[in-house]
Amino acid sequence: MTGSFTLAYVPGVTPGKWARVWQERLPETELTLVQVPAAEAAARVRAGEADAALLRLPGDREDLHAIPLYTETTVVVFPKDHEFAAADELSLEDLAEHVLWQPLDDTLGWDEVPGQPPVERPGTTADAIAVVAAGVGVLVVPQSLARLHHRKDLKHVALSDAPQSRVALSFPIRDENPELIEHMIGIVRGRTANSTRGPAAEPAPKQAPKQAPKQRRGPAPQQKKQPAKRAKPRRGR
Question: Which residue ranges are recorded for the region named Disordered (predicted)?
Fold first, then answer.
C-alpha cells in the first residue's frame, strides 16, 4: 500500500514502538510523526494537518472519534528538600494549603479542587517545572510529563485520589482514508498483522482433494466353494 500517514502526538506520549510496527507492516506507506502542543492536537486533526493524533482525554472531542488506549498515573512534583520528600505516595488531603499547578498543556480536567485553593494554570509543563523548582507550590501532572521534564532537584510520587488522564487515538468521524486508520487502530491496540483490517493476504494455492476409494454397497459377494477332493480307492495286492 502506497501513500502517507501523519500521526500527531502530545508531549509525554512515545509513539516509537507503534511507528516501528507500521514500518514493518506497511513499508511502502510513509509514516510521519509530529509532536504538537496538547492544546492544539485535536485542531490539527480537524484541519487535516494530521490524519490522527495520540492525545489525552478528556479534551476537545468535537467531530472526532477517540479510542482510549491506556490510563496514566497522576503524580505530584516537588523539590527534593520539600516537606513531602520522604513520601512514597500522597493524597489530595496532603496537598491542602499548597499551591497546585496544572499546566494548560495537560488535560487532567481540573479548574479547581473541592476544598482546596484554586488550581493555577501556567502555559506549559516546562513553565510549571521552573516555578516548582524555585520553591513555589507543587505540580500535578501525568507521570509521563514528569519523566519528560525530569530534573535532579525535583521528585515526583503518585497522587492516589487525583483525576487521571487517558491516552487515546483520535481521528475524524468522517475520515477520508479509513483503511490506513484501521491499520493504525490495529497497531496501537496490539492486533497481529493477520487480524488488522486491511488488504487480505493472498490465499495459498488450493490442492485438489484426494478422492477416497469407492466403497461397494450391499453385501460382499460370496466366494464359490471348491468341491471336496475324492479319495482314490486303494488297489488290492
Answer: 192-237
Answer for the pair 10, 37: CB distance below 8 angstroms, yes or no. yes
DSSP classification of residue 162: S
Q: What whole-number distance in Å separates Cα of residue 156 and Cα of residue 139?
A: 9
| Cα angle, residue 88 at apex, residues 85 and 89 outer, rounded to 5° | 110
| Cβ 72 vs Cβ 10: under 8 Å | no
- CB of 98 closer than 8 Å to CB of 195: no
Q: What is the pLDDT of residues 110-125, one digit of tens each?
A: 656 655 666 677 778 8
Interacting residues of 176 by C-beta distance below 8 A, sequence separation 6+: none
Paired residues of 32 in beta bridges:
6
Kindly report, residue by residue over 89-109, the tens digit of the pLDDT: 999 889 888 888 877 666 666
Q: Is 91 helix (H, G, I), strand (E, B) or coil?
A: coil
**Residue 14, domain CATH:** 3.40.190.10
Number of domains in the chain: 2
Distance separating alpha carbons of residues 43 and 60, to the nearest angstrom: 8
